[in-house]
Each structure stands twice: as C-alpha cells, then as structure tokens.
TrEMBL record:
It comes from the Bacteria. The keyword Magnesium does not apply. GO terms for cellular component: membrane. Pfam families: adh_short. Gene3D superfamilies: NAD(P)-binding Rossmann-like Domain. PROSITE patterns: ADH_SHORT. GO terms for molecular function: oxidoreductase activity, acting on the CH-OH group of donors, NAD or NADP as acceptor. This is SDR family oxidoreductase.
Length: 264
C-alpha cells in the first residue's frame, strides 16, 4: 500500500469497528487520518494509539453527522486547517433489525439521516477539494443488504441500496472530467459493535456467526483499493454470488432462502 504514503484521508465513523481499523492501516502505511465520530474519548484514545504505535500523526473531530449545522461548521474547520484532502471514506452508519410497522419511527429517520443524507452531504462538501488533486478517491461503505433485501431490514436495506445507486451514478459523473475514483464496499455481517443496536438479542449474530467477517480484513481490502480504479469490493465472495443470482431470479431466490432471510 505504498500509494497511501503522505495522503490525507477523512474517515467517518472512525471510533470503532471498520473505521478504527482503517485509521490504523492508514497510519501504518504513512497516511494521515482525519477521524470523525461522536465519541471524543474513543477518538482521543485511538489518536494516542496511532501516535505511539505507528509514529504517525492523526487528527480527530467529535461531531454528530446528523446535526447539519454542527457538521457543516466542523467541515469548515477541516477545510481551513488542512491544505488538501486526498480521500473520503464514508463509513458512518447503523442499522435496526425490526419489522417496519413495529419500528420506532425516530430510529427509521435516524437511519435515513445518517446512512444516506449525511453520506451525500459529506461527499458534496468535500468533493471540490477532492477534485483539486491529481488523484483522489471516495469510498462508500454500503452492504450486501443493499442488493438483497430481507425481512426486518426494510429501512436499513433501503438506505444501503441508496448508497450503491448514489456511488454508481457519482462514479460515472466524475469519470467524465476528473481524477476522482469512486468505490462502493458491499459487505456481509462484520464482527463490530454494529449489532449492539441492530440485534440486541444476539439471535441473528448467533445464526450468522460462522459467516461474519473480521473488521481488520475488511479494512485491509479498503486500504488496498485506495487510489485505484476499483469499482466495488464485495465480501464475502459467496454472498456476492448470491446477490447476482437474486438480481436474476428474485422470486426463486426468495423462496429458496426464505428460512435464511427470516433469521433476524
């Protein structure tokens, strides 16, 4: 990952899970991570770890991405502090696995706000800076759930489907006259704190335990893709194959995988 040395990368949702692992990989590769999340304590701890372990500088901003005014002010601070930004990794997001008609609507709106609106707004604000670089990159963390909708994930699946569509359209737009690459990361279940809120009972986690990805592995794939023209990262591979079959034969796949879909 020599292409990362000296680069400046903004990461949302950097305080834990995939975002935390990406920040560490970037530091190991000689890149500067600008870490964004709500938890100042976790970000400060991660900053200290990066400095001591990798002898690399890292910066953080504690902010609620769904608070438009707060995030706008923070972006302005970032843009005035750093002379350039080379990449953006839109990683922040969460899910709630509940039947649509039984869901707390505040949770549904929060998912839509963070997973979609904030991701698009962040991209919108940082894109002018990214376009100024000879080579830059936007990586959006989506999900295999955006390709295969399942019961109790109607809103979550919809948000991730939106991220995939947005990434595909943006990629085509930027390919016309810029050097900004766009990669969409479609992942299955990952061993992170995501499930603390999505699946507090732990039943779904237990049912998919043998399939769950390690966040360090996902982070490695993301960092390897930075500043390349890779269109998508699909993990695990077998789930990507399933999503292709689902697009071709949706009714048959829904019947075939009914029991698997209803494990949430």
């Amino acid at each position: 990952m020599n292409q990362l040395k000296g680069k400046v990368v903004v990461i949302t949702g950097a305080s834990s899970g995939i975002g935390e692992e990406v920040a560490k990989k970037l530091a190991w590769s000689g890149a500067t991570a600008i870490m964004i999340a709500r938890s100042a304590n976790k970000l400060e701890s991660l900053q200290k770890e990066i400095r001591s372990t990798y002898n690399q500088e890292a910066y953080y901003y504690s902010v609620d991405l769904t608070d438009r005014k707060q995030w706008e002010n923070t972006i302005n601070r970032i843009m005035s502090t750093f002379p350039r930004v080379d990449a953006l990794i839109n990683n922040a997001g969460f899910g709630v696995f509940e039947s649509f008609d039984e869901m707390d609507w505040d949770k549904a709106e929060k998912m839509l706000s963070l997973n979609v609106n904030s991701l698009m707004y962040t991209t919108y604000r940082l894109l002018p800076a990214l376009k100024q670089q000879r080579s830059s990159h936007i990586i959006n963390i989506a999900s295999q759930a955006g390709r295969i909708a399942t019961p109790k994930a109607a809103v979550y699946s919809a948000t991730k489907s939106a991220v995939i569509s947005f990434s595909n359209a943006l990629r085509m737009e930027l390919a016309q006259n810029t050097q900004v690459n766009v990669t969409c990361v479609n992942i299955g279940p990952v061993k992170t704190s995501f499930f603390d809120q999505a699946d507090p009972s732990g039943k779904y986690q237990e049912s998919v335990a043998r399939y769950m990805l390690e966040p360090e592995k996902v982070a490695t794939k993301i960092c390897q893709a930075l500043f390349t023209n890779k269109r998508e990262i699909n993990l695990p591979k077998w789930m990507q194959f399933g999503s292709v079959l689902y697009q071709l034969f949706p009714s048959a796949m829904e019947r075939l995988l009914k029991s698997q879909f209803e494990k949430k």
